[in-house]
Amino acid sequence: NTSTFLNFTSLVNGGALADGNYTYNVTLKDLASNSNLTATRTVYLDNAAPTMSFVESSQGNQSYLSDNSTFSIAIAFTEANFYNLSYVFSNSSAYNRTNRTYPSQTSLTFNSFLNETTTFADDNYTVNVTLYDRAWNSVVRTIGFTIDTNTSEIGIQDGTPKNNSVVNGNSIFMNSSWNETYFNNLTFVFKNDSTINVTTLSNRSVPYVNFTSLEDGNYTCNVTIRDAAGNSNTTSVRTFWVDTTAPQLDYHALAKGNNTYLNSNGSIYLKMALNESNFVNFTFKLFNGTAANT
Prior knowledge:
By secondary structure, this protein is mostly beta strands. Helix content is 0%, strand content 46%. It contains no helices and 25 strands. Strands 14, 16, 17, 19, 20 and 21 form a 6-stranded mixed β-sheet that branches. A 5-stranded mixed β-sheet has the order 6-12-11-8-9, with no helix packed on it. A 3-stranded antiparallel β-sheet has the order 5-7-10, with no helix packed on it. A hairpin with a 4-residue loop joins strand 11 and strand 12 (138-147). It is rod-shaped. Residues 110-117 have low confidence and may be disordered.
């Protein structure tokens, strides 16, 4: 595109030019046909914003991490006229701004907190990444995550059978109490010698479960809590017995029969036959028409 002007104050306007590389120079002529040519200059017209994204290997946005020593965030971008990449890494109490220039790379990986070896406090963190090209077009991407290394607090609450207890009923209520900011789920494990029941609840408002239609036998139970970062804690195992069957009791064959007359000098010998796995005690009651002995 060549334009000729007859004054010294003219401005050349190239119009609606497409993005790309352009060169220009100026030639001056006088009336005697003398001329002089300036050096040729190159300009780059760039109106397109860069493209940038977090690659799949990065921690996902709003993710939870249980490792407080290292993490990785990878950036992929496309920009022919790359100038600068900067990021701000911050938590609730501090931030650090870093500018980096990598004109020959198409992806970057940041490891640890600004490549330091220190561990991170449990907190919410944000990484804000900005890329500029040489025409000062820019693109911004933000990713946030939470570091949580704390072990959740969990316990079995009242209402659940105590350890080594015997329950006269065919249903068991298991209740838990816990303390966890980033709650994920509770897992109740309830089993006997032949079956196992694993119940997982993700509703933080329901810390209990009811097991019904239980057969007599020996049972164990515990509760595990997991948080969003994968930390977990499990209660101790409780053992108890479900026993809804009345003891089997009868007089032993050596015991005197009903309506027997004795000449025993004031003593009576009794012997019982018993079948009961959860035995507690015997109670003998001897009485006549006016008095009783227990």
